[in-house]
């Protein structure tokens, strides 16, 4: 994690550097000794994390955060000799508030909290992310495992609480609803043909009219899937010039 140390006391910066040597995930990219310098370096270097004193020449730590360019919002751990700013610090969404001299155990707690917050944020982003056909995904069915490129998947089929995935000569089952899966897939490639099937539009081999205004699609693996009358209009619009 690219980190900037901001403190007007050189000894305090050196001591924090020494303590952070125990954390390989923390990469100290630079230091700043006052508020004005801090603003310039944060805007230019775009650190992911800053350790920052509150009372400094030029600008306070709070004023530094208020002066940053739009879109720049590093994680912040305040370091200060005074405890009266704690409430205001957390109004700025600080990860933590460490009193000087910094206790190594409190520093460890702060970094652990930072890592947990980042992990939760990454998980949430991953869960909400839409996969495109070039992405690779992990699939497990019993004792068998695959790491597959989505472009090789021709069909997703709902079977009760499970979804069967058709790719190459494999048809593993995963515990997932088809609705949840549809939200994660690129709609320009993966099309909801009916209540039970999502097809890969790139894997269509032939198309023919079907009963009641529906369409019958044959995929490259030989599977035939009906595009329901309700979805047929969308299907034609999506594939027409």
User: If you average the pLDDT, what whole number results?
Assistant: 90
Return the domain count.
2
Poorly predicted runs are: none
CATH architecture classification name of the largest domain: 3-Layer(aba) Sandwich
Number of strands: 15
Secondary-structure element pattern, one letter each:
EHEHEHEHEHEEEEEHEEEEEH
For this structure, the quaternary state is single chain
Shape: elongated
| CATH homologous superfamily heading of the largest domain | Response regulator
Roughly how many Å is the radius of gyration? 27 Å
- What amount of the residues lies in strands? 25-35%
**CATH top level class name of the largest domain:** Alpha Beta
Task: Report strand order across the widest sheet.
Answer: 2-1-3-4-5
The number of helical elements comes to 7
Q: Share of helix among residues?
A: 25-40%
Structural class: alpha/beta
Largest sheet: 5 strands, parallel
Distance between the termini: 47 Å
- Could you name the CATH topology of the largest domain? Rossmann fold
